[in-house]
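User: Hello, can you help with two protein structures?

Assistant: Certainly.
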Amino acid sequence: MSMKKQLLMFLLLGAISTANAQSRMDTIRLADPTVFYDNHTYYLYGTGSPDGFGVYTSKNLENWKRADKPALLKGDSYGSKSFWAPQVFRYRGKYYMAYAADEHIAIAVSDSPLGPFIQRVHQPITEPGKQIDPFIFKDADGKLYLYHVRLDRGNRIYVARLKDDLSDIDSSTLMECIHADQGWENTAAANWPVAEGPTVTKINNLYYLFYSANDFRNIDYAVGYATSASPTGPWTKYAGNPVLSRKSTGRNGSGHGDLFTTKDGELFYVFHTHSSENSVGQRKTAVVKLSLSGQSPAVISVVPGSFHYLQIKH
């Protein structure tokens, strides 16, 4: 090979190497993730910044891009630290983010899913005590319900009616939904049992409450669900729980996410896993596809082979 051809080959290989480096795919690292679909775009949010919440976008759930600006930035809304577990939804022509900060729950508003989400008055939901992991569900009759976790002899899931203007809850409607009292929910036999990360959907006039159990640092962190004929319960835990765990994903610490429906009407669950077999953080963001049986009530299960991490191109 002539010197000229060798030089051309060297330059070509260098260009290919540079292109591959520039197109490197990295796993997104958000804990407690949620996906919101609006106007042909998927928006991904989660726990991952000490100063608020970033946002990723995708048209197809495969190719993700991080927005240049945060969706919610500390100082624009309630909270000084511990920004955890956001949820975004549309209501009366606006976009709202429910989230936890300083172990309280707040709701901020924006004109866009990209943010900025702000509060005119920086304040949390006024109910006393520590609360995290909010999820707002709108029923067919228009009533709003705030599912959340209260730190009370463990992490326990509660629900309360949310006022129509989203300003606060009706404290008289507050009631417990679920606490961890089954073997799979507390494999470490901890003195502080954990049930958290609620997300709710309605299928054929039955309400499904998905939740995570065990401490998030436990490799057995996993997801189950319960059903009820009412948004406030009583709730019956599915006998086949957990439906999502390290046994179905092959990854430790699989849990705490959100249900969402794709543009094609398919049901998915987005969640996080531990960083590796030996390390919890920074947690990785993943999805699985869910299937519904024809039974009544329907049995929800993970579609085998559907697990994959969400990635961003650099």
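That covers the first. Now for the second protein you mentioned:
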Amino acid sequence: MHLPQPSFSPPLLGFGVMLIAFGVLLGPVFLVVGGVIVVIGIATWLIDDARAYSSAAEPTDGAHH
């Protein structure tokens, strides 16, 4: 079974979404900071996935996906 490597991206993304939700209630500063953190979280998650994809070994059992 393949499991992804541990990453800070999902909790970072969740924290950014939480700040955006607070921003709806408390003001635009939280919206902006939360939005920046969400963008950083998505970017790091995509970079992690690209690195995992490029370093993944090709299957040698003849199966094609």
